[in-house]
């Protein structure tokens, strides 16, 4: 328990503890987190915002390095590289046990945080993919027919469609098909 140590609780400690709980498949309850930290709920909310904001930060802290690793490991250039990187990212996210546990435990909250303006994850992912598109465009390796921001948004929506299909439609989709759909959108033929 953090409250019993010499270290003074702070927002970063709150985030680290909550992230650890999330990775362990534990539901994050703000009252329990405040107790663990030895602070009141008002202080915790001032530090990290509400539960949804905290979950969004945790999710992005896990998604961003996963996306970076997928980009770094992707071969080729242009549409091939982008579709492979994003497809690999989607596969890794889909295989993460903590992520699947969160979707199973709190599907409506997960969709709200991950796929709407209520959370920051989607906008950050769109921005990261837009940067990747712009990098390929600036190198002359991609000539999209849509503006990069619009294209990045569509790529993210494709990923969401495959990642959350079972929640949205009740039918599981094969996540590996996301890469093919993105390649088609970008005009890449295997």
From TrEMBL:
One Gene Ontology molecular-function label: transcription cis-regulatory region binding
Gene3D superfamilies given in the database record: Tetracycline Repressor, domain 2
Keywords for the protein's UniProt record, in alphabetical order: DNA-binding, Transcription, Transcription regulation
All copies of domain QsdR TetR regulatory C-terminal, residue ranges: 77-187
Name of a matching Pfam family: TetR_C_36
InterPro entries reported in the protein's UniProt record: Homeodomain-like_sf, HTH-type_TetR-like_transc_reg, TetR_C_36
Name of this chain's protein: TetR family transcriptional regulator
Organism: Mycobacterium dioxanotrophicus
């Amino acid at each position: 328990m953090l409250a019993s140590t010499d270290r003074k609780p702070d927002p970063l400690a709150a985030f680290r503890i909550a992230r650890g709980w999330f990775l362990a498949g534990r539901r994050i309850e703000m009252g329990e987190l405040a107790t663990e930290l030895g602070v009141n709920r008002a202080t915790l909310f001032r530090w990290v915002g509400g539960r949804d904001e905290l979950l969004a930060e945790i999710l992005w802290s896990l998604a961003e390095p996963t996306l970076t690793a997928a980009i770094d490991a992707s071969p080729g250039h242009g549409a091939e590289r982008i579709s492979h990187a994003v497809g690999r990212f989607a596969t890794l996210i889909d295989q993460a046990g903590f992520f699947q546990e969160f979707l199973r435990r709190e599907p409506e909250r997960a969709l709200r945080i991950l796929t709407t303006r209520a959370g920051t994850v989607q906008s950050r992912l769109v921005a990261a993919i837009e940067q990747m598109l712009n990098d390929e465009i600036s190198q002359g390796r991609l000539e999209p027919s849509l503006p990069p921001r619009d294209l990045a948004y569509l790529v993210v929506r494709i990923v969401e469609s495959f990642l959350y299909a079972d929640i949205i439609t009740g039918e599981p989709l094969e996540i590996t098909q996301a890469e093919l759909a993105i390649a088609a959108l970008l005009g890449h033929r295997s």
